[in-house]
Structure formats: C-alpha cells, structure tokens
Design a protein that fits this description.
The complex is a heterodimer of chains A (about 450) and B (about 400). Chain A has about 450 residues and is α+β, with helices and mostly antiparallel strands. Chain A contains 14 helices and 19 strands. Chain B has 3 domains: about 100 residues, no CATH class; about 140 residues, Rossmann fold, CATH 3.40.50; about 120 residues, Rossmann fold, CATH 3.40.50. In chain B, helix 11 links the parallel strand 3 and strand 4. The chains are: A alpha+beta (about 450), B alpha/beta (about 400). The interface between A and B is large, with 45 and 37 residues.
Chain lengths: ~450, ~400
C-alpha cells in the first residue's frame, strides 16, 4: 500500500478512501461529452478537519485535488484533468443552523438541494431557498461555486448572490471563514460591510479552495404558487415581452423555452411565468397585472396564454424532474448545454444560432432561458441531447457547443460554468489587466497549483 | 463497439443519465437507496451500477470482487425503479442489476458469502446448513397439521423455519390462523427453499430447480392456495412461479389477517401502544401491498398508529433484501440500513415497530440492540401484536 493511501486512510478511515478500479473509473468522468481522466484516489471526508488534513497532505505531496458535489455541471468541472484526488463532498451533508427570522441557513459543503428543500418543508414551511432545476442530488456548495441559478433568481439574482457566509479550506490547508462568520457566530452577510472576499471562491469552480460550509439566504414560502404559460411565435418580441413582465415587479420566476419536440411546442416560444401569494386575492391581483402586461400582444394576436391544465403539475414541480428527461430523447443518456449569461435583448440572435447549430450538426436541441435579477440579464441554455452509445453524435455535440461558446463570446456574453477549453477561450478574450488580477489571485491562494488544476489556468 | 459481455437489457444501460433521483424518496428527505446510504460512494447507487455495468460490458473495467460487492450490495428494494425519472426504461433497472449478478455467477466471481449461501441451499435446501428435520422445530408444542387437502398451505420458508425470530413470527401467524379456524396445514420436513433470494442473487438455474420441485410438490399434494409467512416467498410464488407452471393462489398472511378481522373471525380486544409500521420491500414496492397492514393495525382497539416519515412507497429498506439478510454485505457501521431505519422509527415516538416480514423483524431487532434502544423500542410482527390484542 502506498504511503499516500495509508495516510488518507488514517485521515478518513478505510470506508472513506478508494483506489479500486470501479470508483476510479466512475469518478473520472461526468455525464457530459468531455473525455475522462482518472484520479489516483477518491476520498470522502466527513468533517472540515478531515478536508484540511487531506489538503495538507496534497500540499506536501503535490497532489491535485478536485472537489465534487454530485458532478452534474455537465461541463467536466469535476473531471480530474491532472489526476490526483477527487474529493466527494456528499458525506458532509448536515444542515447546521436555520435562523428563521434573519432568514438564512448554514449547511455543510456536501448538502444536497433536495435534502435542504425537504428539511425546510418539514421544519420551516414558511421558508424556501432558490432551488435550481438541476437534479435534487446536486449540492448547494457546488451550485454557488459555479454561480448557479434557481427558482428565485429572477427576483434575487444568482444563487451565489444569496450566499451569507462561507467556510473554506484554502489550498494551503488554512480554514477560513468569509463574511459575518469571520468575526462572530452569525451567518447573515458574506461581505458587506466588510470588503466582500467571497468573490475569491464563488465562480472559481473549485480552483481557489474547498467550500466546507455555506450560509444561504432563505425567502418567504408563500402559501400559493401559480404558473401561466404565454406563447408567441414572434421571437423578435421576446425581449420586450420580458421587459414588460419584469416591469411589474411581481413575478417569481420567468423562463423562456422552445424545442422541436413535442410537436405541440414546435415553432413557438413558451414563456413560463411563476407567481406566488399568501391568499387568493394576492394571487389574483398578480395574475391580473400579468394579463394586463400581456394584453397588447393578445390584442395584436402576437401571443396568448395557453391552457396548461395537463402541464400544470409538471411545471410547478420543484425541482423539475422532467428537465432530466431531455437526456433520453435520442435514447439517450445525455445532454449538455452551453449557458451563456447574456443581456435579454440578445435573445433572438441566440435562438437563431441554436437552431442553426442544430441543423448544421444534425442534433436534437432545446433552448431555455431564465431571467436573472429582474431582467438585467438571462442565462440562455443552448442544449443538445445525445446518445451516449453514439460517439459521433457526442463529438458533434461537443463541436456545436464549442461554436456556441465562441458565438456567445463574440456577442459579448459570458459563458456559464465553462469547461476548461471554454475557460481558455474566455481568458484569451479577457482584458490583459483583468487576466493579471485572475492570475495574482490564483497564485496567491494556490501557490502549488493543486486545486482543480487545468481549470482557470493562466499561463 | 466490441462488447466484452452481452447481457439482457444491455442496450438500455447507456440511457442512465446518473442524475441521482433514484437515490431519494419522492420528497428528497434523505437518501433512500440502502446501499448508497451504507457505502456512500456513487458507485453503490443505482446510477453508479448502471454506469459500471456499461463499462463492464464495454470492457473498460474487469470483473472483480469489488465489482461483485457493488452489485451484491443492492438490496433489490425497488426504490430506484419507483424514483427514476425516465419512464421509458426505469422498470428495467432491477432486471439489469439481476442480469449483472447472473453474469457474475456464470463467471464464478461472487462474494464468498454469496457462494456459501448457494452452497448451503444446494447441500441442505436452506441457507442455515441445518438438517431438513429441523424445519419443524419452530412448531414447538403447537398442534399444526401436515398439509392434507386443507384449504391453505402455510408456507413458512427458511427464515421462519430456522431463525429464532422468524420462528417466533411463524408461531404467531399459525396461532392467529388456528384461532380463526382457518383450514391450513404445513409441509414440515418436506418444505424447501422458495428460491426468491437465490433468484435475486443471480443463480437462475438453481432458482428454476427449486421452483420446479416446489411446484411439483404443491401439485402432488393438491395445494390450491398458499399463505406465506414472508414476503420474499410471496414474491417468488406470485410473480415468478406462474411462468414455471404454478397456478396456485398466493396470499401473504397479512392479506388473510385483514379478511379475518373484517369478517370478525378474530376480534382483538385492545393493544394500548403507540405503533409504527415498517413496509417490507417485497410486500410494498414489489407487490403494492401498503394498505392492508395499516388497516389491520387501525382495527385494533386502543392501538395508536403513527407513520414514519419515509413510509409506503418511500419506505427505507431494512437492508435484508437481495440476499443481504444472509450475506450482510451491506450491513456494517452506523449507516447500516437496519440502524438507519430503526432510528427513523424511534423519532416517531412509537414504542413498537410492527413488521410483516421475518427478515425485517430480525434486521430491525438486531438494530434495536446495536443502537442500545431496547428499553424504548420493540420490534413485533403484526401477527404477534394481534396475538397480544387477542390475549391468545
């Protein structure tokens, strides 16, 4: 047995380490289209102190570490590009504290979205968090580390904007608290009125430290939640429709989606609009305002509300299990998307690009956009489903996504959760002085380049 | 691609997205896959198995004892089949996992404890390596007739015949049936293993042999209706024996008890305890029997019934399915399914966990001891609760 394996077993116990071919094979890949790379060990810590000891060992031995939640970014962010240790964080899954009045929760770094949802539903039914549409097994820490979005993003911004404090094991092994928990026992602010250094870890895709605790804002969970589906075939009208919808400042979540299948939705753009209320009066008021905002498009016959009785339950589900079903459209097992963050007035050009890419690469597509922060931007998902048993199709998806990212950059968009190749494309385009700041931050925090190497790598 | 192995349903395995919904109950309270819960590696989850089976078929990983452990750690609880978000193939998940085990058996690379289990069945007709004469030890001083044209055959099964806790449950069931004047008999020393767990552990040929012999025996004796003690036998008789020529009506004893209570053939006077109920996987998810046990408990005067949070279709398995009752691959440490489940029962405030399966009763009784809560929680079969309520 190697000395490293022996030490890892000393740290986490024999059930917390594996270098068996089966775990090595599984943890060398994600469900996306990128090539696998094998780790040397898979390690599952249960405490922050264990994470710290693993990082100290990695420092001493110069071993790369890749923190992993459920591995559902789809863009290979947990693939150990340079081997080393994949750190499966999911055994750190305790919900540590809920402050129901200050409306925040503190969870361990491997806590899943689903478990937090169920916990709040049971113990604090008046509260909710911004649940993403990703599967329930995805983790809260991973979601904020890549600037994920969720059901409350339209109202309150990226899920990473909702962070109220962090505990991070730095690449040097120091345990560091960020925000209010760095000076007291309360987790209500990630920065203000201090300088906000949470940005050293949010969006860095696990390259600057390992998030072991997250404080997260909670929001009122209204008694009623409703959904309407507005449909138009005029793509050029989408930005102004979205502008009008956000103008009323009453809506929870707004998504736009389009796909060639099922046929009932072909050639139209569906806008799913969610709103909530504590009583029928509040709900009906919001519905009325919503209808008023859309009335001119109904009058001009450019759009209308669709009856959704048969879809309603599915649309209201949280998380939306149906999202994963896209993976099985080509029988199947996979889909991947490029999801740039873009200004909302760019929607039509991205929609056109998606259809053009699907035609050129002969792929099944789905387009979906989620509004962010009251319409200041949107995430536009250019998604292609693939058959995992069809290498050719997977390669075509990869090429189409690369082209989509290139297009997004040309249009001034920001690729979301970019894979290592897309990161290079971003860095090439980035202002050199900004890139220098990136480099300085990385060199300072991770002098030995052990954290998720291959990602955000600046030469 | 050149395939190293060909398995039935092998053309489906690539369709798993490994999204992980299969690990949860439908409200996401906690992980509900017993082997994932116990081991904590994604490889031990249903999605992990799907991906590993695909890698194995494609010769990207080799057959190994560790692969065998991963496959045999599956408790065959069917939670994944219920929770998978892909309606076009989720029903095949349990079959795919069984197929992998069949392939491992064919290769002869299986965990030693599984090998021992098969050997015991082949040599002794039971997993306990005990002589056939001891099959009737559970009867003790009771007067239970050998089956001879009775309305029902009471099939006791290996756990009910040989395990101390199983024997206790078998006696309780028999006493309730006797009290209600149900016409039944047993096979006694002539009874042999039903093969349900043999089949779920991938030894299909041995299963066919056991099933065929049982069917032949049942027919020779004129058995038309069977009452089973355990849901495992119930599952085999009901779902797998018909394809091999069985036409017997099959009942789990819970179904009979419910009818006896409704028909007032037995009238419990009362049982003043707070009781929760643990759904056995082979009764619940495999065969859809959720309501009858609850109806029975609710018909007992003074009994206060309380549900565990994860119940019915979302019940957490005790860890005894898929042969794990005998091999114990899945059960070690504080995350053992039986210990997790008993902690779930404890927080209901109940003082009794009612069960309808001798496997579950044994698993949960062990967990009560390990957790050191035997002064707060008792595991009892529904039959024994009825007995106490009847003051038999």
């Amino acid at each position: 047995m190697s000395d490293i394996l022996k030490t890892l077993i000393e740290i986490v116990g024999p059930k917390g380490v594996s270098n068996n071919p089966e775990e090595i094979w599984y943890y060398s890949r994600d469900p996306g289209v990128l090539e696998a790379h094998k780790p040397d060990f898979v390690v599952a810590p249960k405490t922050t102190e264990q994470v710290q000891q693993i990082v100290l060992l990695a420092n001493k031995e110069n071993i790369p570490i890749v923190p992993m939640g459920n591995g559902m970014s789809l863009t290979g962010l947990v693939i150990p590009l340079k081997g080393g240790i994949v750190l499966d964080m999911k055994r750190m899954n305790k919900i540590l504290e809920v402050n129901p009045v200050a409306r925040y929760v503190v969870v361990e770094g491997g806590t899943s979205q689903g478990v937090l949802k169920a916990y709040l539903q049971k113990h604090y039914p008046q509260l909710r968090h911004s649940l993403p549409d990703a599967p329930a097994a995805t983790t809260i820490a991973a979601n904020v580390a890549l600037h994920g979005q969720g059901k409350l993003t339209q109202q309150y911004g990226f899920n990473s904007d909702m962070v109220t404090g962090l505990e991070v094991v730095l690449p040097t092994g120091k345990i560091c608290r960020i925000g209010s928990p760095s000076i007291g026992s309360y987790w209500f602010s990630k920065g203000p009125s201090l300088p906000d250094i949470s940005g050293l870890f949010l969006g860095w895709l696990g390259t600057t430290g390992i998030i072991t605790k997250v404080g997260l804002m909670l929001y009122p969970n209204k008694k009623f939640r409703e959904v309407e589906l507005f449909v138009t075939d005029r793509v050029e009208l989408i930005p102004e429709i979205l502008y009008k919808l956000t103008y009323i400042e009453l809506l929870e979540d707004i998504n736009v989606w389009f796909a060639p299948r099922p046929l009932v939705f072909k050639d139209t753009f569906q806008i799913t609009i969610y709103f909530t209320g504590d009583d029928e009066e509040e709900v009906e008021f919001k519905r009325k305002m919503l209808w008023n905002a859309m009335q001119q498009y109904i009058d001009s016959k450019d759009g209308g509300f669709m009856s959704i009785q048969y879809l309603k339950e599915r649309l209201l589900e949280m998380p939306q299990r149906g999202v994963a079903e896209f993976a099985d459209v080509p029988k199947g097992g996979g889909f991947e998307y490029s999801g740039p963050i873009i200004p909302i007035d760019h929607f039509p050009r991205y929609a056109a690009k998606l259809v053009a890419l699907a035609q050129r690469y002969n792929l099944l597509y789905s387009g979906a956009a989620r509004l962010i922060s009251g319409g200041h931007s949107m995430m536009f998902a250019i998604s292609f489903a693939f058959n995992r048993d069809d290498k050719g199709m997977m390669e075509r998806v990869k090429q189409a996504l690369d082209e989509a990212t290139q297009f997004a950059l040309e249009q001034g968009g920001i690729p979301w959760k970019p894979n290592f190749l897309e990161q290079r494309m971003i860095l090439e385009r980035m202002d050199p002085n900004t890139r220098d700041i990136f480099k300085t931050i990385k060199e300072t925090l991770d002098p030995k380049h052990i954290m998720n190497p291959g990602n955000w790598e600046i030469s | 691609m050149e395939k190293a192995y060909s398995i039935k349903y092998g053309d489906i395995v690539h369709r798993c997205f490994r999204c992980g919904y299969c690990k949860f109950p439908d409200d996401y309270t906690d992980f509900n896959c017993p082997s994932y819960r116990s081991f904590g590696w994604d490889t031990y989850s249903p999605g992990g198995r799907m991906w590993l089976i695909r890698a194995w078929i494609n010769d990207e990983i080799k057959t190994s004892q560790h692969l065998a452990e991963i496959m045999y750690a599956c408790a065959a609880c069917d939670n994944c089949k219920i929770q998978c978000v892909f309606p076009k193939f989720r029903d095949y998940l349990p079959y795919i996992f069984e197929e992998a085990k069949i392939k491992l058996v064919e290769e002869g690379i299986i965990p030693p404890l599984v090998k021992n289990y098969f050997k015991a069945i082949i040599t002794h007709g039971n997993p306990y390596n005990l002589p056939q004469e001891q099959r009737v030890d559970w009867v003790h001083e009771m007067q239970i007739p050998e089956f001879n044209g009775h309305e029902y055959l009471f099939y006791v099964g290996c756990v009910g015949s040989f395990d101390e806790i199983g024997q206790k449950m078998a006696r309780s069931v028999a006493r309730v049936l006797l009290k209600a004047n149900v016409s039944f008999g047993i096979l006694g020393e002539e009874e042999t293993c039903d093969g349900n767990d043999v089949r779920s552990m991938g030894e299909t040929e041995l299963f066919k042999q056991l099933a065929s012999e049982n069917i032949k025996k049942f027919k020779e004796k004129g058995v038309k209706k069977i009452i089973t003690l355990d849901p495992h036998a119930f599952n085999a008789f009901k779902n797998y024996y018909p394809a091999l020529g069985s036409d017997m009506e099959v009942f789990h004893h819970i179904e009979i008890f419910e009818r006896l209570l409704k028909d007032k053939k037995i009238s419990p006077s009362g049982y003043a305890k707070k009781v929760t109920y643990h759904d056995p996987c082979y009764l619940g998810r495999h065969n859809g029997i959720y309501q009858q046990p609850r109806e029975i408990l609710k018909m007992i005067p003074s009994l206060e019934f309380v549900e565990m949070h994860q119940h019915g279709v979302n019940a957490f398995c005790c860890g005894g399915g898929g042969g794990n009752f005998f091999t114990d691959i899945i059960n070690s440490g504080e995350d053992s399914p039986n210990r997790v489940r008993i902690r779930q029962a404890l927080i209901t405030g109940a003082s009794v966990v009612a069960v309808a399966c001798p496997y579950c009763e044994k698993m949960l009784s062990d967990a009560v001891k390990t957790e050191g809560i035997d002064d707060r929680l008792e595991v009892l079969s529904i039959a024994e609760i009825i007995e106490r309520a009847l003051s038999i």
